[in-house]
Prior knowledge:
Phenylalanyl-tRNA Synthetase, Chain B, domain 1; about 30% helix; globular
Amino acid sequence: MIVSWNWLKDYVTLDCDHITAAEKLMMSGLNLEEIEPKGDDFAIDLEVTSNRPDCLGHIGVARELTVLFDKTLNIPAAEIATSSEKTSAVTSVDNQSPEHCTQYQARIIRGVKVGPSPEWLRKRLETLGLRSVNNVVDVTNYVLLECGQPLHAFDLNRLDGKKIVVRQAKKGEKIQAIDGKAYELDEQMCVIADASNPVAIAGVMGGKETEVDESTTDLLIETANFAPLSVRRTARKLSLFSDSSFRFERGVDVRQIDWASRRCCELIVQVAGGEILEDSIRIGNFEPALPEGITLRFAQVPRILGINVPVETCREILKKLGLIEEEFQGESAIYSAPSWRADLTREADLIEEIARIYGYDQIPENDPPLVCATAKSDQDRTTDIVHHVFNAAGFYEAITMSFVSAELSAAFNPRGLETQLQVEHSSRKKDNQLRSSLIPSLLVSRRANERTGTSNAQLY
């Protein structure tokens, strides 16, 4: 995840430079890959683990900084003014695949003027390595990078019937995506369609036919949540990956969908004009119940971390991270995780959060055991030479089970050898004899390779 230093400062006021902030983030778990100067800005490349999709946007990274530096997070209000015309009078949404699309929100903006983006918007996208397309598309990308919620803008007048249908694709159905390539779909893929054809691959990429260009005047803004497994399967089947699919695969904050929709419309009106229709069409539950509370026993903190962290410090850290303390009982407390932290599900997760914010550097290191250098034996050197020769000849080293079936053991039992050792209790009832030769295991492995289409597998 590449973030802009100047952009981060829109959400949190810091009294340090970009290097100090980046190092602090690194020490708390967001590994720093690189810092690259970009004019009067700096592009900070952070490695975000798959369990932290909340940090796939500038607001999420800024939220981390507010905790680390004890600052306040400033999130735009995303206030919009609407006309008297209702969205439901212009379009409709039919969700025929609720298991793949759990939430869908549509807003309409009329009378936009599509053109080049203002300089401030272009600069922010270019700092992160994105090219400017037009003011409308740039805003959808901007909001994605701001909060981590993917959005898509359709040309409303190019939607057949001016309606949205979320459904499974039909076998053999095709769509030309905005990357200019045609993709053949199958029944397991979820698509966004109009009255007749697919207009987007759900959660992955929009279609060319309803793409926003300079002739566009009316927009339908899509903000939704698609099932991670569905998006992952579709993206891999089509070999089509995007910033949107990357985020949907990891999960988005459902409670943020409406804010992202309002924020997108607010910025589009700011840079492209137009008026937003009253209300929006919302399908699904946008206020899901929070998961059950997590009990934290404060005595477990020193037991697991090896250091004493004061109870009040633990409580303060968790509060700053957005957790709600439902009940405090002195020796323990019950917490509810915020909607953007779906990865916090158990006591160990809370203790890990305490550790990374309190500081991993506060945990003392144990001296490593002394290690004495040793020379390789003649047998080790010979083994290395054999490995090298076989590998150079195109053979693959096979690591197989040490047990084989009684039939194979008897077939490859060298003459004069006594009955093979047999395991009385084995998870593999058939393969329960200790092999005396590698040959049967290698033959079984070769046969398995041939069954899966790999002929002439050379193994040793």
